Amino acid sequence: MKPGGRAAAKQGRPQRTPSPGRAAAAEPPAAGWTFLSNHTHVLVCLAADPEQTLRDVAAQVGITERAVQRIVAELEAAGVLAREREGRRNRYRLDLSLPLRHPLEQHCRIGDLIGLVVQGAR
C-alpha cells in the first residue's frame, strides 16, 4: 500500500493531500450530484446553441462524447429533439411543448424547464 493510503489513516498517520492545482482539475465544483440530469444538461446545451457539435456538448456537460450520443439518440427516439442535417453538420430542433416524463413533473413542459435555465430559449 502507498504511504499515506488507507493503512496510514487507520494507523493515525496523516494522509497525503493532493496539490491544490490537481484537486481543482480532478473534481468539478459541484462534486457528487447535481439537481439536473445529464439528459437535461444536454438539452440545455442544445437549446442554447442548436448547431454546436456533440463534442462541445460533452465538454460542457463533463461526460464522454459517446454518452452524449446515447442521450441524443434517446431524446430523439422520445420525440424530444430532431436532428436536421445542414451540410456537414447537424442542427438540433427541440420540441419544447412536450411534458416532462416523471409523474411528479408532468404538469410542466420541457420549455418551462429550459426557459428557467437558458435565457431566450422560449
Describe this structure in words.
The chain is mostly helical and about 120 residues long. It has a domain at about 35-115: Arc Repressor Mutant, subunit A (Orthogonal Bundle). The protein is built from 6 helices and 2 strands; from the N terminus they run H-H-H-H-H-E-E-H. A two-stranded antiparallel ribbon has the order 1-2. A hairpin with a 2-residue loop joins strand 1 and strand 2. The chain is globular, with a radius of gyration of 20 Å. About 10% of the residues are buried.
Attribute tags:
mainly alpha, 6 helices, 2 strands, 43% helix, globular
Give a quick precis of the structure.
By secondary structure, this protein is mostly helical.
Low-confidence stretches: 14-27
What is the name of the CATH superfamily of the domain at 35-117? Winged helix-like DNA-binding domain superfamily/Winged helix DNA-binding domain
Q: Class of the domain at 35-117, according to the CATH hierarchy?
A: Mainly Alpha
- Give the second-level CATH assignment, the architecture of the domain at 35-117: Orthogonal Bundle
Instruction: Provide the helix percentage.
Output: 40-55%
Give me the CATH fold name of the domain at 35-117. Arc Repressor Mutant, subunit A
Secondary-structure-based class equals mainly alpha
Radius of gyration: 20 Å
User: What percent strand?
Assistant: 5-15%
